[in-house]
């Protein structure tokens, strides 16, 4: 029985040949399907790794496999294979959605000070010249 959010038999058959074999230390790996289902559970729930249910095996094993496969590009290869294959048969629907609630302006776009002189910092000099001219003008005339 496949739980909610876990790999179906069809999905497993597609990705199983793309997964790496034993790590070279001679120890057999925990079942890849069990570990991937643990990773999917963690990504779906957003829970800490330590809260991973026991049915997926030790959380350390699931995390280490996730991190190792991220570092060696296994996850990227899986995603690319699935996208390319599904896109070639017209199964993938590419949709782009931009929502202004997730677009945030950088602090400099919000009027924060920029490096260098502030705009208008010489206003005292300009005003001082005007004052001097006004006061000198009538007295001279």
Brief sketch in words of this structure:
The protein is mainly α.
Question: How does this structure look, described?
Answer:
With 141 residues, the chain is an all-alpha fold. It has a domain of 80 residues. 48% of the residues lie in helices and 0% in strands. Helix 2 packs across helix 3. The chain is elongated. The termini are far apart. The model has no long low-confidence stretch (mean pLDDT 76). InterPro entries: IS402-like_dom, Transposase_6_like.
Topology:
Elements lengths: L8 H7 L16 H14 L13 H14 L1 H15 L34 H18 L1
Note the main attributes of this structure.
141 residues, elongated, mainly alpha
Which value, in Å, is the CA radius of gyration?
31 Å
Determine the N-to-C terminus distance.
103 Å
Structural class: mainly alpha
Low-confidence blocks of residues? none
Helix content: 40-55%
> On the 0-100 scale, what is the average pLDDT?
76
Q: SSE string, helix = H, strand = E?
A: HHHHH
The number of helical elements comes to: 5
Question: What is the approximate shape?
Answer: elongated
Strand % is under 5%
Count of β-strands: 0
Instruction: Let me know the largest β-sheet.
Output: none
